[in-house]
Amino acid sequence: MKRYTWKTGLIEVAMIIEAIFFLIPIYILVNLSVRGAADPSSPIAPTLHATFDNFIQAWALGGLGKAILNSGLITVVSVVLIVVFAALASVPLARVSSSWSRGLYFFLMVGLLIPFQLVFIPLYQTFSAMGLLGGPWALVILYVGHQMPFAIFLFASFLREIPLEYEQAASLDGSSRFQTFRYVTFPMLAPVTGTVAILSVILVWNDFMTPLLYLSGSPNQTVPVAIYGFVGEYVSNWPVVFAGLIIGMLPVLVAYLILQRKILDGFAVGVKG
Amino acid sequence: MWWFAVPAVVFYVFVMIIPAARGVLEAFTNWDGLSSTQTFVGLANFETILHDPTALGAIIHTLVIAISVTLFQNLIGLLLALGVKSNIKTGKVLSVIFFAPAVITPVITAFLWQYIYSPSGVINYTLDAVGLGGLQQSWLGDSKIALVSIIIVIVWQFSGYSMVIFIAGLGAIPDDVVEASAIDGAGPFRQFFDIRLPLLKPALLINFLLTLIAGLKQFDVVWVLTQGGPGVSTQTLSTLIFQNAFLFGKFGYGVALAVLLAIIAIPISVIQYRAVARGGDR
After folding, report:
1. Same domain, A85 and A140
2. Domain for residue A166, yes or no?
3. Contacts of B149 (CB under 8 A, 6+ apart)
4. Whether residue A240 sits in one domain with residue A168
5. How many Cβ pairs closer than 8 A exist between chain A and B?
6. Least CA distance to A11: which residue of chain B?
7. Chain A contacts of B178, Cβ < 8 Å?
8. Domain count for chain A
């Protein structure tokens, strides 16, 4: 089974062709983004006289710098709060075996069943009454609350597999409950913390429906909404639009390429539980 | 240490429980989202759904998207996983490539495909260039094809996601089981159907449920590519909820559609939760 036969070679070639096929849209994206406005050649033919003017134009016109900052801020704050709150909550939920603990856990897991579409209309009214629409906090609050069930599920499942001894030893040594969490439990949760963080970053950074609504009319857009507005305005000028799309996807793509193994493993852990 | 759970519970109740309860109540009113009064109208919103061809169409399109994406995305994902996990030397690099579209913002990939699909875009240009100009289509403008065009984009973007879950599932299959069967003379097909497929059942189940739920909730790609058009031919529950609640001022009706979406999605989520929870017990 482990030999490299001509059949393996065949699979290899087929897979590489498949990968090239997968990459065609990306090739078109990059190829057109460096093309001058007056270049009439086919969208598939490689651009011979590459120019970066489109990127300069897209950056100036799209307000993407500000959007990346906004998205980055909202993502970092949301993900930190998601990780900290969910990890904290998982301690009593996983370590206390009372009917209270089980009941609360079940109550939290009900959230996995509630579709986002059902809560985000009534929440719009609440945030509107609180005067939070148009700012980043409405989004942060929503992401944190929405991610709690899934994040707690991952943390609590993982914590149940870890023996209690380390935490007991720490409390015998006189450390407070919070110190035990901070210096013993939380570090042991590191593998799931990575998974929760990665899944949450992708969810928050890519979300479109919520900011489209909650930030509508606000000058503080996130990347997906800024891109949406930018393309709507310059749709006839595809090379500039494509440069904008690349700028918009670069932060996440770069992070992905740097952390690829961690991210792929994190996804797998996340869905296996 | 009960206070450890307080922040999580506060955020959760504020964001999920109270709004969900309010949503269910509002689904029985005719509120427009602005006025200070809302009248209880009983099941009127749900009766309207049953007599509204747009809403019925949206239910059908939502199901068509969810089911076709589930089938194709998982079929492709499974083939990619089997290929990547075979003895080939480029497996690691290829898996990174196949997964890459799944991390990109769907709004961005949707705009890219809008260009590819546009009347003078890449597909039509290529068809013309190779002498197949007769096959040119208005990929997003023809109500018969637009839904298929949307499905292709979603499958392209998320096949790698299914692949990653299958890879994890394949990793759990001990090599010696497969090798023993090879010694017993099982060919690659027998091996796949008799050994790998049964052992892949957990991964299959999770993949199916994840894609089904994601398909039912699909908004971004449809909104960018067609906004539910041409006409109402690609209207989904999510786009219809959005339009009714925030563009047409029919909050009550929009929320009623969201309740309907919940009724469709909840049984699937229950099965998924049980499957994943059981997987974690192993």
Report:
1. yes
2. yes
3. B113, B117, B139, B140, B225
4. yes
5. 269
6. B83
7. 1
8. 2
Q: Do B9 and A89 touch (CB under 8 A)?
A: yes
pTM of the model: 0.91
| Record: contact A252-B161, CB cut-off 8 A | no
Task: Report pLDDT digits (tens) over B30-45.
Answer: 887 777 777 888 899 9
Chain B residues 180-209 within an 8 A CB cutoff of chain A: 182, 202, 206
Q: Which CATH number characterizes residue A87's domain?
A: 1.10.3720.10
Tokens encoding B25 = 């109540």
Dist. CA B27–CA B48, nearest whole Å: 12
d(CA A151, CA A108): 10
CB atoms A149 and B16 under 8 Å = yes
Contact B182, B148 (CB under 8 A): no
Q: Are residues A110 and A213 in the same domain?
A: yes
> Domains of chain B by range and CATH?
22-281 (1.10.3720.10)
Across the interface, do A149 and B12 touch by the CB < 8 Å criterion? yes
The nearest CA of chain A is from the CA of B60 a distance in Å of 18
The pLDDT value given to residue B282:
37
Cβ neighbours of residue A13 under 8 Å, at least 6 residues apart? none
State whether A156 and A68 are in the same domain: yes
Contact check, Cβ <8 Å, A224/B156:
no
Q: Which residue of A has its CA nearest to B171?
A: A268
Residues A75 and A45 in one domain: no
Cβ distance of B165 and A157 shorter than 8 Å: no
| Type of residue found at B10 | V
Distance from CA of B18 to the nearest CA of A (A): 8
Q: What domain range is A229 assigned to?
A: 62-272
Q: What is the pLDDT of residues A117-160, one digit of tens each?
A: 899 889 998 999 999 999 999 999 999 999 999 999 999 989 99
The rounded distance, in Å, linking the Cα atoms of B224 and B68 is: 20
The answer to whether A184 and A158 have CB atoms below 8 angstroms apart is no
Q: What is the interface pTM, i.e. ipTM, of the complex?
A: 0.91
Q: Is B152 a residue whose pLDDT tops 90?
A: yes
